[in-house]
Amino acid sequence: MIVVTRLDKQRMYLNPDHIICIEETPDTVITLFNGNRYIVIDRASTITSRIVAFRARISRRAAIPAARRYLGRHPTHRLDWSERLTDDASHDSPGAQKHTPFHSRDY
Fold first, then answer.
1. Which of 26, 50, 76, 100 has the CB geometry, 3.0–4.6 Å to 2, for a possible disulfide?
2. Is this prediction's pTM over 0.70?
3. Which domain holds residue 48?
4. pLDDT tens digits, residue range 17-33?
């Protein structure tokens, strides 16, 4: 998302993939693919540089190795239910029920 400023000084975030064209009449007009038009204070050159920076940031994130990805999970964070069930069973009293996983993903 890129930030642009409307004429009333409100900041607005736009998805640059939805922009069809940017026109510079006395005011800068951004046209989206759904037909919406927004008049903004920012110059067209500023908006295009923000779009380029946005896409470069996405490319850099995509090039990060798999072990260091943003939402990557490490194997140490996974729960091993078989170990947990055996631990729970050792502490159970004679009348207590064993824990049974509710979902298949809990196995």
1. 50
2. no
3. 2-67
4. 999 999 998 999 999 99
